[in-house]
Design brief:
The chain is α+β, with helices and mostly antiparallel strands. It has one domain: Alpha-Beta Complex (Maf protein), CATH 3.90.950.10. About 30% of the residues lie in helices and about 25% in strands. Strands 1, 2, 3, 4, 5, 6, 7 and 8 form an 8-stranded mixed beta sheet that branches. Strand 6 and strand 7 form a beta hairpin. The longest helix has 19 residues.
């Protein structure tokens, strides 16, 4: 694992996501971010779990190829409807964004995040799922007002539950960190399996 000046472990995040970086840094992990360059449109699957695992793996591998001695973490997330199997990424435009939120009203859906850790000792790919229930009493005007903020336009599912989008939900079943973009507890599982310990290099 690469280290900083204080010899603390540094994780290379194969992403420029400010949310994922913030989650890791606030948990005490020094992080360097590097865009993977992976074209997500080239990866297709009707299975949301298979899709995010493959994307996470490709992102981590792309950065690890440039940093062969580093510990590299890749991640990807989608929302999906467990009943229909429909997969939702980032809404392409405000009109679709509004339609999507309206269709989610009063229903459960899931967020699944694939995450991959690559070190000189090998690679591990896993995933985490969290279920959410959207309020049934949301009005069309409320949904339109939220879309107009632009907050959820760059998020899987079309919302940021940690921001103004919190009002959309009445229940979350699972890992809250996963809703934010990265299942932090499970990431720590991976790091500890590889020997990382708080306060010292692996």
């Amino acid at each position: 694992m690469t280290t900083n000046r204080a010899s603390e472990p540094v994780l290379v995040l194969a992403s420029t996501s400010p949310w994922r970086r913030r989650i890791l840094e606030e948990a005490g992990l020094p992080v360097r971010c590097e865009a993977s360059g992976v074209d997500e449109a080239e990866v297709r699957s009707a299975d949301p779990v298979a899709l995010v695992r493959e994307l996470a793996r490709r992102k981590a591998e792309a950065v690890a190829a440039r940093r062969p001695q580093a510990w590299v973490l890749g991640a990807d997330q989608v929302a999906f409807d467990p009943e229909t199997g429909d997969i939702w990424g980032k809404p392409p435009d405000p009109e679709e964004h509004l339609r999507r939120l309206a269709a989610m009203r009063g229903r459960r859906h899931a967020l699944v995040t694939g995450y991959a850790l690559i070190t000189p000792d090998g690679a591990t790919v896993r995933h985490e799922r969290t279920d959410l229930r959207v309020r049934a009493d949301l009005t069309d005007d409320e949904l339109a007002a939220y879309v107009a903020t632009g907050e959820g336009s760059g998020c899987a599912g079309g919302y940021a539950a940690e921001g103004r989008g919190a009002f959309l939900f009445e229940a979350v079943d699972g890992d809250w960190f996963n809703v934010l973009g990265l299942p932090l507890f499970r990431v720590f599982d991976l790091l500890r399996e590889r020997g990382w310990r708080f306060g010292g290099a692996a």
